[in-house]
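Complex record, two chains
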Amino acid sequence: MNADAVPERIAEVWGARTPYRRGDAWPRRADIHLEEGVGESDVDRWVRSACVLCSNGCACDIAVKDGRMVGVRGRETDLVNHGRMGPKGLYGSWQWNGKDRLTRPLIRRDGELVESDWDTAMDLIVRRSQELLDEAGPLSHGFYTSGQLFLEEYYTLGVIGKAGLGTPHMDGNTRLCTATSAAAMKESFGSDGQPGTYADIDHCDALFLFGHNMAETQTVLWSRVLDRLAGPEPPVVVAVDPRRTKVAEAAVESGGLHLAPLPGTNQALMNGLVRELIVNKWIDEDYVAAHTLGFSELEKTVEPYTPAHVGEICGIEPDTLARAAEIFGTSERVLSTVLQGFYQSHQATAAACQVNNLHLLRGMLGKPGGGVLQMNGQPTAQNTRECGADGDLPGFRNWENPDHVRQLAELWNVDELTIPHWSPPTHAMQIWRYAEQGSIRFLWISATNPAVSMPELPRIREILGKEDLFVVVQDGFRTETAEFADVVLPAALWGEKQGTFTNANRTVHLSEKAVEPPGEARADLDVFLDYARRMDFRDRDGDPLIGWQTPEDAFRAWQECSRGRLCDYTGLSYDKLRGGSGIQWPCDGERPDGTERLYADGVFTTSSAACEDFGHDLLTGGTVSATEHKALHPDGRAFLKAAEYTAPPEEPGERYPFVCTTGRTVYHFHTRTKTGRAPKLRRAAPEPWAEVAASDAAELGVTDGDLVLVESARGRVEVPARIGRVRPGVVFLPFHYGYWDTGGEGHPRAANELTMTEWDPVSKQPLFKIGAVRVRKVEG
Amino acid sequence: MHLATYLGLLHTSLNTLADAFREVGRGHGEEPDVEHTCLLLAGRIDRQTDALAPIVERYGEDREEEPERLHAAGLEGTRSGGVGLLRDLQDLYALSSFTDITWTVVGQAAQGLRDRELLDLVEDHEQETSRQLTWLRTRMKQAAPQALIAAR
C-alpha cells in the first residue's frame, strides 16, 4: 500500500470500516503515512516503536531516511492496533522533529533564560540540591514528571528520589489522568493492574462506556468498536456522558442508550445501577459469595437510590436508568470502560469502584468479552504507576507493609528508613501546595507542562514564579512552563532514544532510537543518571546507588524489582520484544507469552501480604489500617466498596449558573506541545472554543462563532462559541490549549484558567469536570 | 435513671463537634481537601444529631445538671501554617474521641435496657465516629513530617 491509498484521516478520523463478527479476530490493516514526496521504497529503514500520542499505545514502525524521521506505519501483527494508526499517530508523532526544539541547556541570568552548556546547568542544579539538603533535608525536594517517559526513566527517577534523596514528594501528571483508574483497582482488587484486555471488544455483546469519549480519546480502539458495530452480531452500546458525543450517537444507533447525568452526579447514577442489579436479582450469587466481601454494606448503601430518586439527582429519565441496568444485568458478556468523565469528576474513585462492583456482582471478570477496562489518559501512565515515579512504591508495593519496604531496601541496598513510607507518597496537588507554602523549594519538572495542564492556572503561575522556588524543566520544547524555569534541560523525544512502555491493557512495547536528538539534547535517562552521578548517591556498601548506564540495563534492574509482583516483567527482554510485537504482563517463567486477562480464577490480589493498598474510606480517603485489613481476612476476595452520593464541592448558582466541563478532543494531545506543531493537526483545531446547548445559546443571544467570555471564581477565557451537543446548563471547553503559539497576548484561552483546586479524596485526582461558570457574549 | 444525663452530654458534644469541623473547614480553605472533608463530616454529624431525637423523646435529656468538666470545649478559631493545621486537626481528634467514648457509654446503657433501636443507632454512629478519627489520623500522618521538619 502506498501513502496515497490511505484516506485523509483528519476528516475520516476512524478510517474505513473492516466489519467483523463477534469472536472473530479484528481484521488487520497497515495504516501508513509518509512525508510528501517520499515513497515506501525510499525509506532507508523502519524502526520499531509504538505511538505515545494517546493512551492506546499503538505499535508502529518509524520510517527513517537520511537520518530523519519521515513517516510512520502501523504494525499489523500487534495485538493492540492490528496495524491501525489514528490521526495523531499518523500526522503528529514525527512531524515536529527538528523544528524549534530545545537544543542546548538554558539558565536564568538577570531574569532571562540564556543558552548555556550541560556542565554549567547541571552544576547549578546539583549545587542548589545540595544546599537544600544541608539546610532542610530531602523534604525540600519535589519531582513532578509525566505519562510520556519510558519505563527505564521512571524507574531510575524513582530510585533516585526514594533511595537517593529520600523524598516522598514524587508524582506524575498521571495524577491528572489515570490516578483514579489505579485507585479504583486497588480498592476493589487489592492492586493496580488492568483485569481486562482490548480483545474483549471482539467478544462482548454489551459495551458500557462510563465517562469515556473513546471516539476522540482512543481513536484506534474506537475503530475496533465501530468495526464490531458494522459486522454481524454487533454489541449493544451504552454511553454515560453529559455531551451527545459520537459515542453517544453510536450507542443509540446500536439499540443501546445514552445516559447524560448532570456533571458531578456519577455516584448517584452508579448506585442506582447497582441497586437495579440487586433488586432484580441479576447477580451471580455463587460468585459474590465465593469471591467478594462487603455485599450487605453495598446493598444497604445503594438501597435509597431508586430510579426515581436517581432521576431527580442526575436529571435523567428513571426509565433509561432501569433499561441500562437491564442491559447490563441480562447481557451474556459485558465489557465496561471508564475514563475522565468519571476520573476527573466528583466522587471519582467511588464511582469507578461501582463499575468494578457491577462486574463483581455478575461474576463478569477475566473472561472473553466480560471485563472491565479502567483506562489511562496517557500512553506510559502505566509505567509511572508501576515504577514508583508517582505516588506509589515500585512494583505495586504497599507503603504500609514493612515487608514490601524491606524488599526495596534490600534490592537497592539502602537503609529501610531512607525510603519514605510514613504515609503514601505525596500526591501532585499536595506537592504544589507545599511549593506554594515554601516548604518545597526545589521542583524538577520532566516531560510535562503544568502551566497549562494543572487546575487553576493563575495559582500555578504564581507558584512557578516564586522567588524561593528553584524550578528545573526538562523537555523537548520551550513550553509555557519552561518560561518559569531557573534551568531548562533539552530532552530527547520519542524516536530519539530507546526504552519500553506499557499501555492500559498491560501491553509492553519496545521503542528504539530511530534518529539522533537535535543539538545537545539528551535522553531523559541520561539526564537522571548524570544527576545521580554528580550527587554521588551511594548504597550501604559505598557503591554507586544506580548501577546501570543503558536503557537495557535499567530494564533488567526493573525486572528484578517486578519479580513476583502482579506486574512481573521477568519473562520479557528487549530481544523478545524485538522478535514479535507487544506482550502483556505478567510475563514470567510460567507465563512466557504474557497474560491476556487477570483474575480469570476469581482470586484477587487482596491478601494482606500481597496487596498494594489496605484500602480507604471512599467518602473521606481515610486509610484502612493493616490491623483492620487483616481482621477482614480478604484472602483473595475482591472488595465491594460502597459510598453514598454527596453533593459536589461547587454547584451552579445565581452568580455562576452553568457547569463547566472540560476535556480532550481528537486533534490534540497533552498541551499541544507536539500536536500543535504538526501542521495537519494544528490546522484541524487551531483554537479552543466553548460548546453550549442550543437553548442556552438562544437565551444568551449567542450564535455560532460569537466570541464569549466564560468566567469562574478563579479565572476567565474568551473563545468562540459552538452551538453543540452538551446538555442544557453545561458548557464544554476543550482543555490543554496554552499560550506558546498566541503571540503572548494575556491569558484568555486555557480551560484550566477556570478549573478548581479540588481533588478526589482517595485518588487525589483533580476535578476538571464540574466548575461553576457564567457565560456572556463579548460585544464587538 | 441517669441515661438522660448522658444523652444530654452526647447531644451537646455532637453539636460542639459539628461546629468544630465547620470552623476548621472554613479556617483552612487553602487546603481544599480539609475544607471539603470537614464540611462533609459536619453535615453527617448533624444527621446523627437528628437521628437522636426519638431516643431523647423516649428517655429525656438532662443538660442542666452535668458538671462543667463534662463539657467538651469547642474551638474559638483556627491557626495558620502547617503546624497550625496539625494542631487544629488534633483538636478535632480530641473532640471526636470524646464523642466516641460517649457513644460507647450510651451503647452500654442500651445493652442493659435491651433497646434494639438505640443499639442499632449506636452501632451506626460509632462507625461514623470511627470514620472521623480515621480521616483525621490519615491527614495528620500525611502532614506531620513536612510541617515539623521542612516548613519555615
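Note: The interface with chain A takes residues 30-33, 36-37, 40-41, 81-82, 131, 134-138, 141-142, 144-147, 149-152 of chain B (CB under 8 Å).
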